[in-house]
Design brief:
The complex is a heterodimer of chains A (about 220) and B (about 270).
Chain A lengths: L4 E3 L3 H22 L12 H28 L1 H12 L3 H8 L1 H7 L14 H26 L6 H30 L9 H4 L2 E3 H7 L1 H9 L5
Antiparallel strand pairs in A: 1-2
Chain B lengths: L3 E6 L8 H10 L25 E9 L2 E9 L8 H5 L5 E3 L5 E3 L9 H5 L6 E2 L10 E2 L5 H4 L6 H5 L5 E5 H17 L6 E3 L9 E5 L19 H41 L1
Parallel strand pairs in B: 1-10
Antiparallel strand pairs in B: 1-8, 2-3, 4-5, 6-7, 9-10
The chains are: A mainly alpha (about 220), B alpha+beta (about 270).
Chain lengths: ~220, ~270
Amino acid sequence: MQSRYVRRFSASERLAHWLHFLAFTVLLGTGGFLYMPALQPFTVGAAGEAARLAHRVAAVVFIVTPLLYLMGDSRGFLGSLRESFSWGADDLRWLRLAWRYYTQGANAEGVPPQGKYNAGQKLNALTQIIAFILFTITGLIMWFGHGAVAPAVFRWSVIIHDLSVTAVLALFLVHLYQVSIHPFTRESIMAMFEGVVTREYAEEHHGKWYEEVKASGEVG
Amino acid sequence: MGKVSLLIDTSKCTGCRGCQVACKEWNDLAATDTTNWGSYENPPDLSASTWTRIAFHEVEGDSGVKWLFLKQGCMQCTQAVCVEVCPTQALQHHDMGFISLDQERCNGCGYCAEFCPFQIPRLEANAFTGQGKITKCTLCQDRVTNDMSPACAKTCPANAIYFGDRQEMLATAKQRVDELKAGGHSNASVYGETELGGLGRMYVLLERPAQYGLPENPSPALAGFWQKGIQPFGYAAVGLTLLGLGFNWLAQRRNSALSVKAQEEA
């Protein structure tokens, strides 16, 4: 009997994803105080010291998570990395028609079939990778560089760190919307809880990937 | 009371460091073990327990090496970068023209230390947890708000440190510079009249500011970048994103309704 589901994410991938989510939200909360004048009482005195400490603990989790992912599922890690960096004509066409995809659906006229990740997901991944590198470098400079690096280096680290947050926060909101609110795509959140999506979802939204999985014989 | 200022006449300073001791006494700061590190100046830098010190600048002139003494400490800027970057308002402008510090509010982030154009505030924090408090000269805020002069000014045996109404200090400084110029010190100048909107610590200098390690044109580098740059940019980016998502939700709902209707009619 044919299974109703197609495997999408391994246990390691899901664990890494949720660790990243946890670390990111703590980092966002404890760092976000700086941006929002209304929340600034949380930066003052002992509360601020606690927030800064929590930010550092979460930063360690944030930095270590990709390594855990790599150790737990190197094939998934490298496969996803490779996929995020491989761009073809269909990806560019998908990007041009992204609004149509998100307003009329995956079967709308002209929307090309996508691989395991659509072009939007690839863009998100690339931005996250760049931001991860920037966060890590500038964060470590601010953590350990006090008094050791030139003031200008420290100052620009603060600014780059803060601008990276803006980019990542905007993408985070789009991501949340897609997996929890948008009626066309929200069922895909199943992949992060159960590790699978329905056969129909895979075929409709990630046609190329579905064909590959079928050809490899992983689904009947 | 209007704006006050310190005025340090470097031409009168003998480098005795009585001000360093008076500062530590009044502010209850620990003494520092010092070593001979090749200079008569000590301690070698400002620190959490040294809020003021005399820097000894050795300058070669026609008549051999001479010392230029500079009493370092917070410059009490009118355009204070530290106040702008402080997320907790531990650092604030006081009506009397100095930068007050409330250590209870400080969370030890150290941004003031990194953004100060004069590198005055010092943070001694745990390297891993980052816990610590910023320290700097506050012009003896507890003394000057009670009609007393700062401990350093009170103690200076050479009468090189004046304290009082800023306009009076400025007039005294200019008069002294005129005297020095008449006496042959052609490079004499007042430092702090207009720098960063006017400083609450002014100097009468014998030589160019650079020879004392002072920036000729201190700039409030990147000051206000949060309030004027990153915050509006962040709000705009997040706002536009939410707006776009809202439009998307309405558009997909309309299309879905249309296609359901088309199916019903077919």
